Amino acid sequence: MSEEEKLLKDAKKLPWEARLLHKNWKVRNDANIDLAALCDSITDPKDNRIRELGRYFKKTIADSNAPVQDKALDALIAYLKAADADAGRYAKEVCDAIAAKCLTGRPKTVEKAQMVFMLWVELEAVDAFLDVMEKAIKNKVAKAVVPAIDVMFQALSEFGSKVVPPKRILKMLPELFDHQDQNVRASSKGLTLELCRWIGRDNVKSILFEKMRDTMKKELEAELVNATGAAKPTRKIRSEQDKELEQEVVGSGPAGEESAAEIPEEIDEYELVDPVDILTPLEKSKFWKDVKSSKWLERKNAVEGLNKLASAKRIAPGDFIEVCRALKKSEIQLCVSPVELMQGQYENYSNEVELMMYTANTAKSDNYPIPREGRKFLFSMQLVMDVNLAVSVEAVQAIGNLASGLRTHFSASSRFLLPILLEKLKEKKPTMAEALSHTLKAMHKAKCLTLADIVEDVKTAVKNKVPHVRSLTLNWVANCVETSNKATILKVHKDYVPICMECLNDGTPEVRDAAFSVLASIGKIVGMRPLEKSLEKLDDIRRKKLSEMIGISGSGASTVGPSGGTVSSAQASDGTVVKKSAASMLSGKNPAPAAPTGKKVASGKTGASKKADGPSQSQTKTSGQPEDVEPGEMSLEEIETRLESLIQAQTIADLKSNAWQKRSEALNSFKQEVEALQQLDKSVEILIRLLCVVPGWSDKHIKVQQLVIEVVNHIASTASKFSKKCVVLCIGGLYERLADIKTRTQAMKCLTTFSEAVGPGFIFERMFKIMKEQKNPKISEGLLLWMVSAVEDFGVAHLKLKDVIDFCKNIGLQSSASATRNATIKLIGALHKFVGPDIKAFFSDVKPSLLTAVEAECQKNPFEGAGTKPKKTVKASDAASSSVSGGGLDGLPREDISSKIPPAFLKEFESSNWKVRLQSIEAVNKIVEEANKRIQPNGTVELFGALRGRLYDSNKNITMATLTCISGLASAMGPAVDKSSKGILSDVLKCLGDNKKQMRECTLATLDSWVAVTHLDKMIPYIATCLTDAKLGVEGRKDLFDWLCRKLTGLAEFLDAISLLRPVAIAMTVFNYFFKKGLVS
């Protein structure tokens, strides 16, 4: 027995602590292996050994010897699988040690460290985990920060927001956005996108965007488009796993209950933010002084200051009684004499003047001596009822903000302020009505008030002399009922039904309708049965109306699909589950595949393990199922076995030779043997796989590299079908050959051959992802120059022009390498030849120097027309699936503007203020301009409906502006305008009946724009109707005939012209010299 074996044997007799901390690393290594085996054998988490062993890991995982550290992590993983939540007592110290010693280690060590963190989360030690992450992200070494972000991403992604609180992660992100390392920034963006999936985009944007730089905001806005899909946890904490196991043994309940339990709850932004103290800054401000001022502007400024502070999403609880008293009542010292009061100098203060007039009239009494000139009177003024509307509105809004920010902590104050808010409903000014509605709804939504709390106030309000107060109070109650649960309504409906029944006899229709709305809302929630007794007094007509209102929108039960399966700790900790990194959430990045279990040559390895492994590889759709373009794994031995009958064994052996001459000769022999194959198509993929492995793309000799490319090119050009999977196998190594001048020509020729086989669109898509990853400017330049030649050879019919333009603008032109920028400009010039001048609009916001260069390049490549035939074509079998845009101008991307035209915006077209109407039209023009005058028809039907009304505007300038706007929309939308416009052309033609020549010219210009994007035959039915319209007028008909003559002249054939004969004949009956002259011409 050797000394080493004897040492290890003797060491096994030592206690665990002595073995694990032994000075000999082999002893420590052996101890960790034994410890892992021991933990694997423990089946009871309450075993005493679990409690004893936990204290050792703090030191073992900090071992300076890397192999020992790995074994220590294996032992810790086994321990955590065997333990339960009681082991959490060691979480803080162990996680600290891991963060300090393991996150900068070897990739396998980092992976195991992350696995340990996930197991701590599974054991509900989330607080300790996040405490350590807060320290880890502050590490000066960026290499340690990225794994920390990734493990938070994994924890949130797998366990969900119920287990991993998003609030703590949100606090960590702002400092990561400004990190100097780009990998840290990319990971932080990925983590932000994952948060969007769990707590919603709006919540993330409102909390984080204000803390970001503008550049980061822009980047994240672009990425937020990809943050889709409902997030569901895929892994459960240990206690839940144990419960599931018990249910399986005993017999679980219905599957539907489990599905319902896993429905993701809506996250309340209020719970994600920290409370803000507003009382302290309020004390330091002039609020308490200005709020009592006699000058309305000072009062307004005081309340504005409070409103600004109260707009915080969450307000720290405190004593707000005095603030509410100030909002309700403020003492104002005014120097007023009885004479001034009698003269009406303070008539604006109506209530106060009445009080003082009474004081003056009763001054003869001994109890009310006449005040001396200049004596100060104490005016009691309510800010909510302030005579100045601006002050009053601000006060109401401040109450609403306080309710939203304090929630239940504002309940007492809400009950204190409610009567005066309901009284204020008599105010008919829109700004005040809107502020009151928002505040009252906010009070109920924030649970400051419940329906049970407001019964007495509602009873008082519905007896108010002003009908407006009665109806709006009931409308608010209806809203409260609709937003309450069934249990609440069952408790209070007996209080509200009598109130509503009494209001049904009100003399004002609005009050009666509001009462019906409350009853209908109650009926929808609790049903008609609890209301039957109360509704017996209703006549048949009212009962029928109420039944109809309740039945209008009967709520159907929403079905919940089965939830996805969850991952156990055993599954999650073995090597079969793919671990995503945070950066993989960004567009163009996918998680790396799991490592193969056997000795295989992965698809990425066939490309010489270059950076082509990194870019994501999307699937392209064919006429049937999506084609699988990702090659699977295959070992070299398997490849050789499948090629035994096709390629001589000696040829394959020579391809592996260390001598380049032999490899070169072998490639020539290989090519000859391929040429001799009778059925090449069946063997294309296996032949390509062999070349990718031996000699492979990483061969150092130029001659061999050139021969590999030539043989691949020969196979691709000879085979009748060369699949996209084969292209993916080759492209990972081929793109780097473009950087070398000695192999660039062969590589470009090979890529062109690939394009003929699968279409250039697929090649472009892969290239874009590669160029986003790699940093070599020579490679980028080579790829871009090939793209230029591809556009010249194939045109743009097979390209996704939006992706090409976005890449040129955001990646190519932004490159720090001048060669890359110049190549990008050449690509834009090549696109201009096929697309036309409209493409320049997409680059209008780049730097002036770049814009000048783009325009110069476009001049060198003039537009040749959309019908220009390409030099090369894609093989017929793939042509249909490769064509993505149809080519020409229609291939340019169009922007969806539906989100920019909400209902509130459309209402502004009907404003009584002509300036607002004009501004709305100008806003549409701006939206079209920002979309580079290329828009989708989505959401434009309502927009055209709003514009239709403005064609009849009393203000002629607005009518002409509308015509210009419609003209711009037609040009920007293209042929789709015919369906989206809903016949607005007939309304446009009626504008020819205007006496002003300028109006008619504007109308004709709109018709020119319309006929440019649609065909004249689509317009003939509208024109025929217009010609017979007596209101059109002589001049209008003449102008329309002149326009028609110009459009019909030069048309060789126009079958729809026959439908114009009858309208023309009718028009000839108009005996007017000028009209007939125009008709004949």
Entry keywords:
about 1100 residues, mainly alpha, Leucine-rich Repeat Variant, two-stranded antiparallel ribbon, 2 strands, cytoskeleton
Q: CATH superfamily assignment of the largest domain?
A: Leucine-rich Repeat Variant
Distance from N terminus to C terminus (CA atoms, Å) equals: 119 Å
For the record, the count of structural domains works out to 4
Spatial shape: flat
Keywords: Cytoplasm, Cytoskeleton, Repeat
Biased composition (Basic and acidic residues): 237-246
Family: Belongs to the TOG/XMAP215 family.
GO molecular function, one term: microtubule plus-end binding
Tell me about this structure.
By secondary structure, the chain is an all-alpha fold. The chain has four domains: 222 residues, Alpha Horseshoe (Leucine-rich Repeat Variant), CATH 1.25.10; 102 residues, Alpha Horseshoe (Leucine-rich Repeat Variant), CATH 1.25.10; 258 residues, Leucine-rich Repeat Variant, CATH 1.25.10; 183 residues, Alpha Horseshoe (Leucine-rich Repeat Variant), CATH 1.25.10. It is built from 55 helices and two strands. Strands 1-2 form a two-stranded antiparallel sheet. Helix 7 packs parallel to helix 9 and helix 8 packs parallel to helix 10. The longest helix has 18 residues. It starts with a helix and ends with a helix. About 13% of the residues have low confidence.
